[in-house]
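Journal club prep, notes for RB
We'll compare a predicted complex against what the paper describes. Inputs for the adenosine-5'-triphosphate case:
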Amino acid sequence: MSATVAEPGVRPSVWLVVSSSWRSGRLAFLISLLEVVSRVLQSLNPLFVGFVVTGVIEHRLGLLVGGAAGLACSQGLIFLLMLIGVHERMHVNDRVGFAFDQCIGRRSGLTPTMDHLVDPAYQDRLQTLTERQGAMGMAFQSLVNTLNNLSGAVVTFVVAFLIDPRLLLLVLVAVPAALAAQRTASWESAAEAESASSGRLSEHLMKVLTSAGPASELRVMGARARIAERADRAVRAWRAPYVRASARGSALNSLISLVYLGAGGAILWWMVDDALRGRLGVGTLVAAVVVLGDLRDSSESMLWTTNLAARMIRVGRRVLWLERYGEQSVARHTGSGAAPSRIERGISLRDVTFTYPGAKKATFQGLSIDLPAGATIAVVGENGAGKSTLVNVLTGMYDLDAGSIEIDGRPLTTLDLAQWRAASSGAFQDHARFEFTARDAIGIGDLQTEPTDAVVLAALARAAATDVLRALPDGLDTQLGPEWGGVGLSGGQWQRLAIARGMMRGRPLLQVLDEPTSALDPATEHALFDGYADAARRTRDNGGITVLVTHRFSTVSAADLVVVMADGAVAEIGTHDELMAADGTYAHLYSLQAAGYH
Ligand SMILES: Nc1ncnc2c1ncn2[C@@H]1O[C@H](COP(=O)(O)OP(=O)(O)OP(=O)(O)O)[C@@H](O)[C@H]1O
């Protein structure tokens, strides 16, 4: 199900950046604002220059000394304050960026379901925040620069007014400059949104080109050049919107500068004429020339200021959007009921409709299945039939569009999801390779239990994986992963550790095994599943249900119930014998595979 999250407004986004920066270090925050003071001092310089020139020409010593002292002090202070301010700004920058990273990571980790991890809208926003290194820290940088430029501009306008009010006519140029700035900011924002998915694609292709996993496949297929070409195209597609936006922005900026130059030239001509006629002092004229430069800078900086402010707001908005996405997800899961201690009747899917976030077509449309208490159920079916999705919705990984999953008639949504998951356990084909010690890599499957030798060895035994110990020179305390100076394991060995991890919880209410044995040979898988089904039968007094997803039909004859899925629906359901007798799809595929093994 796709979440609909309202776009956050400007005010909360700015507040987020300001409050996060303040919280990241109050003193550093205040010190970094010294840069603003230095900018204000700099804007006073034309006044001091005017005093000096007038003092010299009119032989007014007080004016000369005051102007010179003002210039000397402001120059010294400007440099000092700037130095201290920039130094602290860098610190705050890093801290704010780190705080945002942490906040997004934490929020993503605490989100109860997996919807956001496969939702393109979520991933695109995350991409725009993370692809430009330090974009989140830059939000504070943008804030300080915005304050710098704004305060500098305001003081320059006041100084210009004091020197000669006519200079303020130039402020009129600031109007088209501000409009142009708005337009450039919207181009930049559109470019970020447009390039987000190409950015993700280029990162994905770079990972394919630079990681060990796909390396042999690419080399054997001779596909490296092709993938590199695709990566190039993706990088170009990612950069193109930025380059276009920046070129249009520069063109507009140059136009504004030309307008400014024309207007500035006209005003200066007017003032020079006045000076020649003796209506204006030379000191004032010199100060006007100096302030004209500052006014040009301020007018040009309007473009930057608006861009920087817009950038800061965009960062704030995206972070808030991601936060709200997470909050909404948490708010949707209000179930607080305790997980049952045993299952009496079973788990049922009732008219379940489910669409992956961003997908156009529903994977399940009114799916109903009854999984009886204490049963070991095998789920088979072609690729894309919906087997893994079934496992995912049973463990509450995604929100349903409609329908419900009920445990003894109680909707899963009324239970505390964390408790339901604590009562479940699982092993998956795309299992994680935790490069810890073997003990920790297995023990993480049940954090409530101390991973003593006895406990971990029992889990290994239940997973029929005891022989993996042969590959571990220091037994359970062997460090895994050559990158950490530990041992390297084969794909099958990693998979067996993952199954053992899934077996850490002794008697879960729901045990899902989603093709965890694909790297094992059929005989081992068969033996493992038979043994497991036997053990499950012996300990089924808590009504625990085991769901095994597999492509190997030979494995499933020991199951109490076989569910054959096709195109998101149940095509056949029954025991192995019933389905063989029905002589349908199952019987046909079973016979085909059996013939293949003979
Ligand atoms: N993240 C996703 N976003 C959109 N659609 C998805 C996503 N994951 C799976 N699907 C779609 O849902 C359908 C069921 O996929 P599922 O992974 O459940 O199939 P499966 O039976 O487990 O397949 P396999 O045997 O290949 O593992 C497929 O049509 C697939 O394209």
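Talking point for the session: The CA atoms of residues 554 and 594 lie 7 Å apart.
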